[in-house]
Amino acid sequence: MRAVVTGGAGFLGSHLCETLLRQGHTVVAVDNFCTGSPDNVAHLHDTGRFRLVQADVTEGLRIEGDVDLVLHFASPASPVDYLRMPIETLQVGSQGTTHALDLAHAKDARFVVASTSEVYGDPLVHPQPESYWGNVNPVGPRGVYDEAKRFGEALTLAYRQAYGVDTGIVRIFNTFGPRMRPNDGRAIPNFIRQALMGEPVTVAGHGLQTRSICYVDDLVAGILAMAASDHSGPINIGNPHEISMLDLAQWIVRLVGSDSPIVHIDRPVDDPTVRRPDTTIAQRELGWAPIVPIEDALHRTIAWFRGHDGEVPPLSPE
Ligand code: NAD
Ligand code: UDP
């Protein structure tokens, strides 16, 4: 199979490329490096089946030759990143998704788009099933991301209905692991970096808001199960392991063996209070469920942040 991965030099994209190559496929990654880096995929060139194209998918997406699968993952994902690039975020969700869908249409390829739990906004239903329409503020600061993703979902379904493109939508919940940028602003890389440096660990508000955190290997398995199916989705992919940000910060400080104090900073505007996926459909339709224990996953991620030499250490802590 020949796959095109937009955002392939980012955190999730690089892991997707790596797994596809390990499975024997050929991969073209397309990335403009606005939040990703060629370093994330430098080790993949040795396979001889990997190509990295520097391009902005908002401007177009042309790939020569056959394509069997398009994984559309290009988009800033950290709140810090998308608040810094609000227009680019809306454009990659609209024009970028249009170009990725046009490619899948032209090549008769399966298409899977990375949507997000953010389509549920600050949810009034908990945990969140796919049938929940969400509680999003379109004119709040997070609207640029949430609405870009919601538009991307609607566009994806329209291409399926109007042109018969074999599309799938995954709603990804908070995922972590090696190759997150230590300064990308998301909670887990912030907490690990701060604990490793002995700096105060910044918990927003009282830290009682929750997220449900998934290790990247589990996430990749779920995405590739969706890619291998013909399901249209949307399907939630995430780990129902729900934890408050205060508990998470304290857990990470303990695992790092740090004496960093916890400090409280302002809560971002419209910060969701709770979030947990209902994964019934993923289990039933894709036979997928996360299997990596969160403590093992945190150990592995901390080890990578310590070394940061590109090598991902084995799953069980030594
Ligand atoms: P990331 O920032 O590490 O990766 C995004 C990649 O997309 C980067 O390499 C970036 O340079 C690239 N990109 C952005 N705009 C582009 C453009 N216009 N043209 C070409 N490349 C562009 O983020 P990530 O965590 O790997 O997220 C990947 C995808 O998964 C995103 O679409 C994100 O919305 C989605 N997602 C991620 C999570 C998560 O927890 N990591 C949760 C929900 C959804
Ligand atoms: N958060 C925090 N400290 C930080 C960064 C984030 O307490 O240094 C909080 C943030 O306010 C949110 C949660 O952690 O309540 C998850 O934030 P993240 O940016 O990781 O993901 P998202 O909000 O997109 O789920």
UniProtKB/TrEMBL annotation:
It is a single-pass type II membrane protein. Its cofactor is NAD(+). Signal peptide: none annotated. It comes from the Bacteria. CDD domains: UGD_SDR_e. GO terms for molecular function: NAD+ binding; UDP-glucuronate decarboxylase activity. It holds the Pfam family Epimerase. Keywords: Decarboxylase, Glycoprotein, Golgi apparatus, Lyase, Membrane, NAD, Signal-anchor, Transmembrane, Transmembrane helix. InterPro entries: Epimerase_deHydtase, NAD(P)-bd_dom_sf, UXS-like. It is found in: Golgi apparatus membrane; Golgi apparatus, Golgi stack membrane. GO terms for cellular component: cytoplasm. Residues 4-238 form the NAD-dependent epimerase/dehydratase domain. One of its GO terms (biological process) is D-xylose metabolic process. PANTHER family: UDP-GLUCURONIC ACID DECARBOXYLASE 1, UDP-GLUCURONIC ACID DECARBOXYLASE-RELATED. This is dTDP-glucose 4,6-dehydratase. It comes from Yimella lutea.
